[in-house]
UniProtKB/TrEMBL annotation, chain A:
Substrate binds at residues 99-102, 121, 245, 535. Pathway: Purine metabolism; IMP biosynthesis via de novo pathway; 5-amino-1-(5-phospho-D-ribosyl)imidazole from N(2)-formyl-N(1)-(5-phospho-D-ribosyl)glycinamide: step 1/2. Its EC number is 6.3.5.3. This is Phosphoribosylformylglycinamidine synthase subunit PurL. The gene is purL. Residues 79-194, 441-556 form the PurM-like N-terminal domain. Signal peptide: none annotated. Residues 207-360 form the PurM-like C-terminal domain.
TrEMBL record, chain B:
This is Phosphoribosylformylglycinamidine synthase subunit PurQ. It comes from the Bacteria. Part of the phosphoribosylformylglycinamidine synthase complex involved in the purines biosynthetic pathway. Catalyzes the ATP-dependent conversion of formylglycinamide ribonucleotide (FGAR) and glutamine to yield formylglycinamidine ribonucleotide (FGAM) and glutamate. The FGAM synthase complex is composed of three subunits. PurQ produces an ammonia molecule by converting glutamine to glutamate. PurL transfers the ammonia molecule to FGAR to form FGAM in an ATP-dependent manner. Its EC number is 6.3.5.3, 3.5.1.2. NCBIfam families: FGAM_synth_I, PRK03619.1. HAMAP family: PurQ. One of its GO terms (molecular function) is glutaminase activity. Keywords: ATP-binding, Cytoplasm, Glutamine amidotransferase, Hydrolase, Ligase, Nucleotide-binding, Purine biosynthesis. It comes from Salinicoccus bachuensis. The active site is at residues 85, 193, 195. Part of the FGAM synthase complex composed of 1 PurL, 1 PurQ and 2 PurS subunits. It catalyses: N(2)-formyl-N(1)-(5-phospho-beta-D-ribosyl)glycinamide + L-glutamine + ATP + H2O = 2-formamido-N(1)-(5-O-phospho-beta-D-ribosyl)acetamidine + L-glutamate + ADP + phosphate + H(+); L-glutamine + H2O = L-glutamate + NH4(+). Its main location: cytoplasm. Pathway: Purine metabolism; IMP biosynthesis via de novo pathway; 5-amino-1-(5-phospho-D-ribosyl)imidazole from N(2)-formyl-N(1)-(5-phospho-D-ribosyl)glycinamide: step 1/2.
Length: 725, 225
């Protein structure tokens, strides 16, 4: 008896229904080859999500293979829900970054909220308790009402989920650029801690072991979400709003606690969260890793309403769900435990010796697919990149009104205070936050110890656009600098590759060259890649700037050195590192030229490492009080930010041209320390004072009051957001 | 003193609250919201978070949980009852404290360190502070605007029940009120988080004295009244 009316195998073939689900003709033929017959409707849907870019990395796999993924401290690299890195004493840190760009573009609150929920479940499914959240955001300029709407919604969504579930958001970064108009980037990172012996893998093994479903009842939300995430955004994307899932942080919280409880039980065999492609990817991936088959009885799946078909069930991306494999006979113990948390749960299947994913609904078979090819034989496309023409025109900003440039940059949302954003995130719940959002990396103490985890996230898309290879290196190096600046030893990183369509040769070149640069930086800076995510087809009105986002964690052995350090008037300011006329991808270039010249950028990674480690040592020893990497907007903006943040004046003389204050060379720091220090490659440039902000150069003088600097910096985002929309 | 940390589904400051009580020298245990008695405990701590998700109204669902009756009994018997953030919202919902907590005037969640003034140090909770002393506690709430009618406000003022005020009101609370006590002085609700202010390394240790005084309740309370 056919329970549901669905297109037949012939309909799918003749009307090319597979194409609507995102499969190409070639991929459809490959499916037929694997099955030895034409796929039915449910099977076609399953292949389409498993072979989507989001799940299979079909355009990025060869590039991701470049990354170093091993190291002395790496306990688990890419391939599982998140990476795991040793921090000593049988403890480890677990982390990953993930994008939720497309959903956030059409439904900012829920798109961002479910992005946070999803990355938390990735960490929890390893068995770790989340201790910190971070986010990296990109929007178009806030002069556009739609970008203000998106910012409001995304920030409220991140806060709405993270605050409720009770994990502190301790750091983040945001940049505003017209290339993100209508295509915001929302990358969320979660960091957790775990004991070595609790590390779980998403695996299904042991014939006869039971498959348990726990969490929210499955509804018809988010169907084909993974496919949607792998398409370009168009006018029609608005109609994809039903592809966006709805977050339920309350259930998420219960599920998190229940999962951490379940992980302590010896009868647990494997666990995986139901994220992108829901029940399909979690069951198929667990079976593939366990080299087993899996049979699911879909009539047992808790559902929100009657009439949900196997197709819809398998493709639904209803949030707050986990799939467990437990030893045969122990299932009641788990079901009782979940009952105690007031969560829906059910035994929905068992591990089999068939090596096939078999789906039954009231006894009728709806899918029968060999697991390995479904999970591991997604097509891989190696495309051709094409390097664009270089532009060697030298830069000259000496005849610009550089005082006006200074005011414009310090008052731009990209450089101004982000308190409007981070004050909407609970950044201290858990009572272990040593350094919260506001200036640089977050630092969270490992509960019950003197150790702390430093965590940072950053991206440098304008540099990557100007010079993909060196820009890729700089993206990693910039995050390295943030970690170093807390005194932590950088351990490892995660990455989220946000790019346009890889099918365009120039975009593929950006992807290929920048990942090559990133890989080299990881090698030299000793920060292997342990997890990551790819978000391609970020095209709306145009193509976004190539935006690899780097999340990094570091270890502080004894965090108590951070207590009692006070920055005060009289402290000396040092500039460490060389400044040249490096303007490709800079903020002054954006302001004045409204363009990015495709011109070489420069970074010496060995120097970067040596300098960073040297300064880190001095910070821990108490020789210097603060190290602040120089980033967007150059020396002038970093000094202004320090002045505003600490509400102190500065008296600075720098032996450079005025325009050089805005140059953006790599590997530079402003260091605050007692006067008279001999810093390698460093120059003392002035003092902190109680009044007035002054920078003098060969041909430019900037003089402001402390209040003027602070007010401009603090008002950068609020002054945009108070416009009535 | 042995404290109960009442745990609702969605409580998320429960561990911080338990740690604070223990750090102050007390004993503390979690008590599930489905329990019906708190007789085994000398004091009750209602932690922050989002009880039942707060999808209805902050604290509204918690107010009909089985444990509620026991919290009221503990309060009536003179045991100290402390409600922080969502705990304060719950204490107003169940009528142990007057007024209500409504959306912040900004209509956004606010998380930052606030400077507060101890306006009444003659309670057994705040006797460790100087009157008029400035303290720093973090706040983290979306619905922290303390609202009450004129009559209630007058009563609070007359009976010296306003214990804590904001120096730079973040949420629009009436008369900058951050925390109040009941008439008997044994129920204290406040929006800021003293349990997150126990160490200078984390930004402030101003909350420690509150928990120390609660742990010394009998002597302290007799001294005050």
């Amino acid at each position: 008896m056919i329970t549901f009316t669905e297109p037949t195998e012939q309909d799918i073939r003749n009307e090319k229904l597979y194409a609507d689900m995102g499969l190409t003709d070639g991929e459809y033929d490959k499916v037929i080859g694997i099955l030895g017959r034409e796929p039915n409707y449910t099977e076609t849907g399953i292949f389409s999500v498993m072979w989507s870019e989001h799940c299979s990395y079909k355009h990025s796999k060869p590039l991701l293979k470049q990354f170093p993924t091993t190291g002395d401290r790496v306990l688990m690299g890419p391939g599982e829900g998140a990476g795991v890195v040793d921090i000593g004493d049988n403890q480890a840190v677990v982390f990953k970054v993930e994008s939720h760009n497309h959903p956030s573009a059409v439904e900012p609150y829920q798109g961002a909220a479910t992005g946070v929920g999803g990355i938390i479940r990735d960490i929890v499914s390893i068995g770790a308790r989340p201790v910190g959240l971070l986010n990296s955001l990109r929007f178009g300029e806030l002069s556009e009402p739609n970008n203000r709407r998106l910012l409001r919604g995304v920030v409220a969504g991140i806060g709405g989920y993270g605050n409720c579930i009770g994990i502190p958001t301790v750091s983040g970064e945001v940049e505003f650029d017209p290339s993100y108009d209508g295509n915001p980037l929302v990358n969320a990172m979660c960091v957790g801690t775990i004991d070595h012996d609790k590390i779980q893998k998403g695996t299904a093994r042991g014939i006869g072991n039971k498959v348990i479903y726990v969490g929210l009842k499955t509804g018809r939300d988010g169907i084909h979400g993974a496919t949607f995430a792998s398409e370009e955004l168009t006018e029609a994307s608005e109609s994809k709003r039903p592809s966006v899932q709805i977050g339920d942080p309350f259930t998420g919280k219960k599920l998190m606690e229940a999962t951490l409880d379940a992980i302590r039980q010896p009868e647990l065999v494997g666990i995986q969260d139901m994220g992108a492609a829901g029940l399909t990817s979690s069951s198929a991936e667990m079976a593939a890793k366990g080299e087993s088959g899996i049979a699911l009885h879909l009539d047992q799946v808790p559902v929100r309403e009657d009439g949900i078909t196997p197709y819809e069930m398998m493709l639904s991306e209803t949030q707050e769900r986990m799939l467990l494999v437990v030893e045969d006979g122990s299932e009641d113990k788990f079901l009782d435990m979940f009952e105690g948390y007031e969560l829906d749960s059910a035994v929905i299947g068992e591990v089999t010796d068939t090596d096939r994913l078999e789906l039954f609904f009231h006894g009728e078979k709806y899918a029968d697919i060999p697991v390995q090819p479904l999970s591991d034989e997604a097509p891989v496309y190696i495309l051709e990149g094409e390097a664009p023409e270089q532009d060697a025109t030298p830069y000259s900003y000496g005849d610009q009104n550089l005082n006006a440039v200074f005011d414009a940059l310090i008052g731009h949302p990209t450089h101004g205070s982000k308190s409007y954003i981070y004050e909407q995130y609970d950044n201290q719940v858990g009572a272990n936050t040593v350094q919260k959002s506001g200036f640089g990396a977050g630092v969270v103490r490992v509960e019950g110890t003197d150790k702390a985890i430093a965590m940072a996230i950053d991206g440098k898309s304008r540099y990557v656009y100007a010079d993909p290879l060196n820009g890729g290196k700089e993206a990693v190096a910039q995050t390295f600098r943030s970690i170093i600046s807390t005194g932590a030893l950088p351990l490892a990183m995660t990455d989220c590759l946000n790019y346009g369509s890889p099918e365009k040769p120039e975009i593929y070149h950006q992807l290929e060259a920048s990942t090559r640069g990133m890989a080299e930086a990881c090698e030299v800076l000793s920060t292997p890649v342990v997890s990551g995510n790819v978000s391609l087809y970020n095209e709306s009105k145009g193509t976004i700037l190539p935006t690899p986002v780097i999340g990094m964690v570091g270890l502080i052995e004894d965090v108590n050195f951070m207590a009692g350090v006070e920055i005060s008037a009289g402290d000396a300011l040092y500039l460490v590192g060389e400044t040249t006329k490096s303007f490709a991808g800079s903020q002054i270039e954006k302001l004045i030229d409204n363009d990015i010249r495709k011109q070489a950028r420069h970074i010496d990674l060995k120097l970067e490492y040596a300098r960073g480690m040297d300064l880190r040592g001095r910070l821990i020893d108490g020789e210097v009080k603060k190290i602040a990497p120089v980033g967007r907007g150059g020396i002038a903006i970093k000094l202004a930010q320090l002045s505003a943040f600490h509400h102190l004046g500065m008296d600075v003389e720098i032996n450079l041209d005025g325009e050089d204050l805005f140059a953006e060379n790599a590997s530079r720091y402003i260091v605050i320390a007692p006067a008279g220090l001999d810093l390698k490659d460093g120059t003392e440039i002035g003092r902190l004072t109680d009044e007035g902000f002054h920078i003098g150069t060969h041909d430019l003088t900037i003089d402001r009051s402390i209040d003027a600097i602070s007010n401009t910096w603090e008002g950068a985002i609020p002054q945009c957001m108070t416009s009535t929309d | 003193m042995k404290f109960a940390v009442v745990k609702f589904p969605g409580s998320n400051c429960d561990r911080d609250m338990l740690n604070a009580a223990v750090k102050a020298g007390g004993e503390a245990e979690y008590v599930d919201y489905r329990e019906t008695s708190l007789e085994a405990y000398d004091g009750v701590l209602v932690p922050g978070g989002f009880s039942f998700g707060d999808y209805l109204r902050s604290g509204a669902m918690a107010s009909v949980a089985p444990i509620t009756r026991a919290i009221k009994e503990a309060a009536a018997s003179g045991k100290p009852v402390l409600g922080v953030c969502n705990g304060f919202q719950i204490l107003t919902e169940i009528g142990l404290l007057p007024g209500a907590l409504i959306f912040n005037d900004t209509h956004t969640f606010i998380s930052r360190n606030e400077v507060l003034t101890i306006t009444n140090n003659e309670t057994a909770f705040t006797s460790g502070y100087e009157k008029g002393e400035s303290v720093i506690f973090p706040v983290a709430h979306g619905e922290g605007h303390y609202y009450c009618d004129d009559e209630t406000h007058e009563t609070l003022v007359e009976n010296n029940r306003i214990v804590l005020t904001y120096n730079d009101n973040p949420n629009g609370s009436r008369a900058d009120i951050a925390g109040i006590v009941n008439e008997a002085g044994n129920v204290f609700g406040l929006m800021p988080h003293p349990e997150r202010a126990l160490e200078t390394l984390l930004g402030s240790d101003d909350g420690m004295r509150l928990f120390e005084k609660m742990n010394d309740w009998e002597a302290n309370h007799d001294h005050i009244h």
